[in-house]
Every structure is written in structure tokens, then in C-alpha cells.
Specification:
alpha+beta, flat, 7 strands, 4-stranded antiparallel sheet, 16% strand
Length: 295
């Protein structure tokens, strides 16, 4: 009886942690083809581990992230989709535990060259744009920012916990959540961990969902998955949508699509002198035959 109560309690905690997304994914009518929904339960992190992390990195964990780690030391939820009788891994939601919340810019190892380039070399002050023009100021790879990897994004980039405007020896307190794409460009996500957590759950951990916050957006394949499992929150580009509210249709205007690529008219071939003389003689001979016949 006690084991049953413990199982129900753990199930209730897991459902509250995932905001009920495991129950939603398990409903076949709303999520067709979803299978193998797996949530990895973890023990809470110890307070001494959190204090040790803060002292080591000279940063204060935000209150919501601290409460999250005191509930579960990390987060992993995966699910698959059934495609032609095969299970295809699709959704993946990951939040690193305290031990894996490591700095993005690690110090160079003893095996690296002394003059080897680093991420800090990518910072160019003259390329920085005013905050009012492009939103929040982007993080720096050097000592001005302290960056920690929160989600590896299955190799499609990294979601990072970023402390900006840092000073050496001073404890950093305010942080934001940013997305670093594979081209090492920064994209702002949310002002807090709680906002990012809800955003991750809302997007079901679909592939490349963080790319929706970039100028180029997700890949066509990722858009297809999003339109299938997120029909209410997925929006296509305004340029692809019809003004009358009709579904987007691929329309091809040849005059616009191939503008500037029209084939030039073929140059007329000049008749050779021999051909011209022969043609003239042939014409005279035929006219002579016709006149002879009339006689």
C-alpha cells in the first residue's frame, strides 16, 4: 500500500514538473503518432552543491532556478513519432544539472597552442549596435559576460544562462537566457529561467524550436513537424500567408521568377556567298522552267 502511494506521489510530482505535458502527449486524439514518452526522474540537488557552484563561478543562481534544482537536479523528457511503422526520435527537452552547468568559455588546456584563437577573439566593439535598435545588448565571450550552458539543443546550438556586465571579483546576480546558434551568433530568448521553461514545454521540445527566434528560422523539415504537432501556436511567414486568410499556396509567376534570365534572341545566320549565288541561279532556273511551260 505504501509503495502504491509513493508511486502516485512520484507520478504527481512528475506531472507538475512537466506542467502536464506527459499527459497531453499520451492522448492519441490530440497527438497522433506520439509514442515512447519518457521522463527521467532525478533526485533533488543538495544545497551545498548550489552554494559550491555559486562560490566557484562568482554568480548567484536566480531564485526560480534554485527552486528548480532543489526539486530535481536537471530535466530530461523525450518522445518519438510513429512514421511508417517505425519509431523516429523527435521531441527532446533537456536542462543540465548543477554539475553540468559549466562555463561556455573554458580556459585553454595545457595541450592547446599558446597563440590559439578563442571565442573571446570574436568580440568586436565596433560592430556592437545600440541596445535601443536591436533589443537587449548581446553577451560577450570575454570576461564581460559569464555564460553557462543550460541546454545543448541536440547539437543545433546552445541555450545559455548569461550574466552580463560582469566585473572581475564581483558577484554577478542578474541573468538572462540566450540562444547561441552554430554560427556563434546570439539570439535573445527570455528574461528569466521560468519563462524559458514554459517556452520549452509549450514547444514540446520539437527539433530546432529555438531557431524560431532567429532571423532565418527553423529548417523546412522542422516547420513540417511544428505544423503537425503545434497547429495552434505554429505560424508561417507573413509573406507566405494569403491576405484573405486562405492557407498558403505555392504561386509561381514566371515573369518575376525568371526576370533577368530571359534568353537572348538567336543571331541571324549570314548566308555565305556561294550559298547566295547558288540560290540565285537555282531561282532563275526554276523561273525559266515555269516560263517555258507557259509558252
Amino acid at each position: 500500500m505504501e509503495e502504491t502511494k509513493e508511486g502516485l506521489t512520484c507520478k504527481g510530482v512528475a506531472e507538475r514538473l512537466t506542467l502536464g505535458i506527459t499527459r497531453v502527449l499520451g492522448v492519441t486524439e490530440s497527438m497522433p503518432g506520439v509514442m515512447d514518452v519518457r521522463f527521467v526522474e532525478r533526485e533533488p540537488a543538495e544545497k551545498r552543491c548550489l552554494l559550491s557552484w555559486e562560490q566557484k563561478n562568482t554568480c548567484v543562481l536566480p531564485e526560480d532556478l534554485r527552486d528548480f534544482y532543489l526539486t530535481t537536479d536537471g530535466f530530461t523528457l523525450t518522445w518519438s513519432a510513429k512514421l511508417e511503422n517505425e519509431s523516429v526520435p523527435l521531441g527532446c527537452m533537456v536542462l543540465n544539472g548543477v554539475a553540468n552547468l559549466r562555463p561556455l568559455c573554458q580556459s585553454s588546456s595545457v595541450f592547446s597552442l599558446p597563440n590559439a584563437p578563442s571565442l573571446a577573439d570574436l568580440d568586436w566593439d565596433e560592430e556592437q549596435v545600440e541596445e535601443s535598435e536591436r533589443g537587449p545588448a548581446e553577451p560577450h565571450f570575454d570576461s564581460r559576460s559569464r555564460i553557462f550552458e543550460l541546454d545543448p539543443c541536440s547539437g543545433n546550438g546552445k541555450v545559455c544562462l548569461v550574466y552580463k556586465d560582469c566585473t572581475k571579483g564581483v558577484v554577478a546576480q542578474k541573468c538572462e537566457v540566450w540562444f547561441l546558434d552554430r554560427s556563434l551568433y546570439w539570439h535573445y530568448l527570455t528574461p528569466s529561467f521560468t519563462a524559458y521553461y514554459r517556452l520549452m514545454i509549450t514547444n514540446l521540445g520539437l527539433p530546432e524550436w529555438q531557431n524560431a527566434f532567429t532571423p532565418y528560422g527553423p529548417s523546412p523539415q522542422a516547420k513540417q513537424w511544428a505544423s503537425l504537432y503545434q497547429p495552434l501556436s505554429f505560424h508561417c511567414e507573413p509573406s507566405m500567408a494569403d491576405h484573405a486568410g486562405e492557407p498558403p499556396v505555392n504561386k509561381l509567376d514566371p515573369s518575376k521568377a525568371f526576370r533577368g534570365k530571359a534568353k537572348l534572341p538567336a543571331p541571324k545566320k549570314k548566308q555565305s556567298a556561294q550559298g547566295g549565288v547558288g540560290g540565285t541561279a537555282k531561282g532563275q532556273g526554276s523561273s525559266g522552267r515555269h516560263s517555258g511551260g507557259r509558252r
